[in-house]
Amino acid sequence: MAIVIKSPWELERMAETGRLHTEIFAELEPLVRPGVTTLELEQFVARAIKERGGVAPQMGYQGTYPFATCMSLNEVVVHGFPGKRALKEGDVLKVDFAFTYQGFTTDMARTYAIGKVSPEAEKLIRVTEEAFWAGLEVMKAGNRTGDVAATVQQYVEGHGFWVVREMVGHGVGRSMHEDPQVPNFGKAGQGPKLRPGMTLAFEPMVTQFPAKVVILEDGWTASAGKGNLAAHYENTVAITEAGPRLLTGSPRSVAAR
């Protein structure tokens, strides 16, 4: 699959998709609290997507994924199924879903601390988001995906955590998954060169301890192993002549909490 370069018109269509996508996350956030089930959060997102005239591209993905969202608790890194278990104080929840609107798709994920979490969990969530912003600074035309990967890896490992190797970011736009891959580990100067018009789902995934992520029996749930908390932070980013452009989420000055 070749890398798809988006025209200025296509970038504006993706920006509109991303605006609606971000709006859904903003409405979801106050609902993420102890006592709520991840299935209830899934149902809210599915309704919100439909109300905006959008499509949930994860639903039926590869013929088997049965939900609009991924709801990944604690040691689950990504692709967790929503369920009837109520969230409880101390949980760490990753919410990840793509959104398609008028033929264009964006991808976005956030990690939520449920009530009061441990200091180590707080640090993990913070470092994962900060790794995103560190990587974003080098997502400039002429740099390579390896430059981004090395920046993320150095930041995460410098704070005592582990970058997930088994899952990576990717191109996104006309399809939910496009080329190139966007890993969060590797060597600077390697990988495809970033060019204006590329649109990328950039998504650091981080665990407390080194781990080999395994897929559970449902064929989707990716676990770092019992007791090994994971965090995930993702936005869709466009490469432009003027630098990286966020198509989902908010600039750091607004989003930092």
TrEMBL record:
Substrate binds at H79, H177. The keyword Metal-binding applies. Keywords: Aminopeptidase, Hydrolase, Metal-binding, Protease. A divalent metal cation 2 binds at D107, H170, E203, E234. GO terms for cellular component: cytosol. GO terms for biological process: proteolysis. InterPro entries: Creatinase/aminopeptidase-like, Pept_M24, Pept_M24_MAP, Pept_M24A_MAP1. The keyword Protease applies. One of its GO terms (molecular function) is metal ion binding. Belongs to the peptidase M24A family. Methionine aminopeptidase type 1 subfamily. Removes the N-terminal methionine from nascent proteins. The N-terminal methionine is often cleaved when the second residue in the primary sequence is small and uncharged (Met-Ala-, Cys, Gly, Pro, Ser, Thr, or Val). Requires deformylation of the N(alpha)-formylated initiator methionine before it can be hydrolyzed. HAMAP family: MetAP_1. Monomer. This is Methionine aminopeptidase. It comes from Calidithermus terrae.
